[in-house]
Structure prediction request, 324 residues.
Amino acid sequence: MGRLRKTLITALLTTLLLGSTAGPASAGTENPLSGPPPGTEAWLADDSLGRELPDPTTAGPSEVATLFAGLTDAQQQKLVEDHPTVVGNLDGVPVHLRYQANAPAGDQVLAYDPRGRGLIAQVVGDLENAAHVAVIVPGSDIDISTFDRTARQAADLQEEAGDDTAVIAWAGYTTPSGIGLDLATGRLAETGAERLARFTDGLDAAGLPDPSLFCHSYGSVVCGLAASGTDASDIVVMGSPGMRADDAAALGTDARVWAAKSPDDWIDRVPNVEVLNLGHGADPTSPGFGATVLPADDVPSHDEYFAPGTSTLTAFAAIADGDL
Prediction:
């Protein structure tokens, strides 16, 4: 038990001390955003179609897609106008209607919930006509106030991949904030994985191609837990503390799994253990994990895997547009 206790303490302290690349130290924990989107009560009370509207809490994206497919253009527009906060966040709603509902929040916003630190998903490129779709899942300290970092990564990836690829910057879960216990546990990742799986189900229900997931840092924990519940074609992790799986086979997915880690990334100093829900398990770039390891020697730091000119961005673009 002495060796186990030492390993546990080392993992916890290292994660807490090194785990955040932005934001102040924090001893507290985050409460993941839960419950239906704002405006749900009015949505459920709306009988203008002569039928009950699907409950955002329990209805699957395919049920939502079926509803909207059976409506006239006028009926769809009325729902957008009367219930923008529900329509804009409801997976399975056609893309153009979600854009309309979220227009006050910005251009091509696919989801927007301002509660708490906020959740947002924004598209770069022509999603409705894309041959390929990529989704970037960020790590800690990303919310509405810091979303520009993830949006910039999406823009750089889309420019490198080309016009037939649309990239979604998906800050659709409550990320760890600052340096605290949340970074060392899977609690927020579990909620994030549920949201990510539902989001990708919504893409499928909208008739879009199977996405490739690009998961950074703590976002790779989210993707690891969501892997078996998505239809992703590829899962790419970078700067990963672990995916809460012993190896790629344990992820339970048919997706190709890729991993990158720069020699200059501080994440390499975090022990790859998982004990009593602390730590996130095996290093995805380790030989025994089973992922295809991408070159990352020219990546200067933990946050620069999408930087223009890096070998990782070139490889990511080739994966996203189906050339690798």
The chain has one domain: 2-28+103-320. The domain at 2-28+103-320 is CATH 3.40.50.1820 (Rossmann fold). Strands lie at 109-113, 119-124, 132-137, 165-171, 212-216, 234-238, 256-260, 292-293. The chain has ten helices and eight strands.
